[in-house]
Amino acid sequence: AVIQVFPDSFHLGTLDSLLGALPEMQPGVKVHSVMASLMDRLARYAAADPWAMTRLTEMRAFERFRDAIGRIISAQASMAPADAVEMYVALMNFTGSVHPNLVTNVNQ
Q1: Contact 70, 23 (CB under 8 A)
Q2: What's the pTM?
Q3: How far apart are CA 5 and CA 76, in angstroms?
Q4: What's the pLDDT score for residue 67?
Q5: Which of 63, 82, 2 lies closest to 35, judged by CA?
Q6: Pair 69, 91: CB distance under 8 Å
Q7: Where do the domains of the chain lie?
């Protein structure tokens, strides 16, 4: 829900704050869904707006998302494996959209 109420540009501008807060969410919050929605939304934004594509590349969004996923999994030890996989699938979809020529991201 938090992903849907703010414009894409807001999420892009506050990405670090949001990624920092997600690992701290209370158990029971579907953080994996929030992460997947955020990555999907920013990938669509990048596809529609060249400025957003450039900005995501400059800010190394893939690495930020990858690191945040690791922190979330560490912080939420009871997370179901399927939920962790959902975040990584969203990350691969994100990198396929934003960085289609960087196959090295898939290996990370």
Answers
A1: no
A2: 0.87
A3: 25
A4: 95
A5: 2
A6: yes
A7: 2-107
